[in-house]
Amino acid sequence: MSLQRKTLVAGNWKMNGNAKLLAQFVEYFSASRKRCETVLCVPSLLTLNAVSASEKCHWLVGGQDVSAEENGAHTGDLSAQMLVEAGCQFVIIGHSERRADHGESNQLIARKAEQALAAGLTPIVCVGESLETRNEGSEEAFVEAQLSAVFERLSAQQLSDIVIAYEPIWAIGTGVTASPEQAQAMHRFIRQRVAQQSQSVAKSIRLLYGGSVKPANAEMLFSQEDIDGGLIGGASLDPKEFEAICLAASE
Ligand code: 13P
């Protein structure tokens, strides 16, 4: 992490949790301890509960997905404006699970990022390669293609308002974390790619690592120069573990 960038830890509950678990989080997080910027991305039906506790718990709330359309006949989808009205400030976009489960393309993800930005949300744009791609040695080319599709649609000003999360698919939910060196190497690559768009944005943009982050490995990962925090799945479902990760990011 760098002193000029504010560290950020976001919890992605995915399709897990319920109001009871959220109540446990509220109890735990309302004992105020100094933490890094903390975002909770709960299932959308829990958004209002998470928002109403946010002042007491010092967290911000995010969505897990958003429509690429502004409004209209898109049954089941949520617009960026709806997330804003519910009190969200962030939204995860392009998670590998959505890319796999819903066939989301790089181009669709770029349009979602645009919609989110237009509504005033901070998109957390996820990128990351499969094990097969890494074994072929093409992980940088793969991530570069994911990034380029988004960068092509955004001005430098818009780019300065996004967060990028590198989540290698082989590290998600597997217990196999990228080594700090592997993670740092990709984060550096991503920052260099951002620098091709804008040198100043490359210095300020926050890059998160995601994939089996736990309290035991968080500090090593977050101490890498180009890693500015984490996107946490499994460990964000346990208040103690999640807070320990947030505290590791605050050091
Ligand atoms: P895990 O932390 O469970 O590996 O999940 C990471 C992730 O997908 C966060 O978006």
Characterization of the model:
With 251 residues, this protein is an alpha/beta fold. It has one domain: TIM Barrel, CATH 3.20.20.70. The chain is built from 13 helices and eight strands. The protein has helices at 19-29, 47-52, 54-57, 80-86, 96-102, 106-119, 131-135, 139-151, 156-159, 180-197, 199-204, 215-222, 239-250; strands at residues 8-12, 37-41, 60-63, 90-93, 122-127, 163-166, 206-210, 229-232. The chain has an eight-stranded parallel β-barrel, surrounded by five helices. Helix 1 links the parallel strand 1 (8-12) and strand 2. Helix 6 (106-119) crosses helix 8 (139-151). The protein is globular, with a radius of gyration of 17 Å. 1,3-dihydroxyacetonephosphate is lined by residues 12, 95, 167, 172-173, 210-213, 231-235. 1,3-dihydroxyacetonephosphate binds at residues 12, 95, 167, 172-173, 210-213, 231-235.
SSE diagram, text form:
Elements lengths: L7 E5 L6 H11 L7 E5 L5 H6 L1 H4 L2 E4 L16 H7 L3 E4 L2 H7 L3 H14 L2 E6 L3 H5 L3 H13 L4 H4 L3 E4 L13 H18 L1 H6 L1 E5 L4 H8 L6 E4 L6 H12 L1
Parallel strand pairs: 1-2, 1-8, 2-3, 3-4, 4-5, 5-6, 6-7, 7-8
Helix pairs in contact: 6-8, 8-10, 12-13
The structure holds 1,3-dihydroxyacetonephosphate.
Describe, in short, the structure shown.
The protein contains 13 helices and eight strands.
Notable traits:
251 residues, alpha/beta, TIM Barrel, 8 strands
CATH class: Alpha Beta
Number of helices: 13
**Could you say how many structural domains there are in total?**
1
Give a quick account of the main beta sheet: strands, pairing sense, barrel closure.
Answer: 8 strands, parallel, barrel
- Compressed to H and E, one letter per element, the order equals EHEHHEHEHHEHHHEHHEHEH
Helix content: 40-55%
Shape designation: globular
What is the first-to-last residue Cα distance?
10 Å
Number of strands: 8
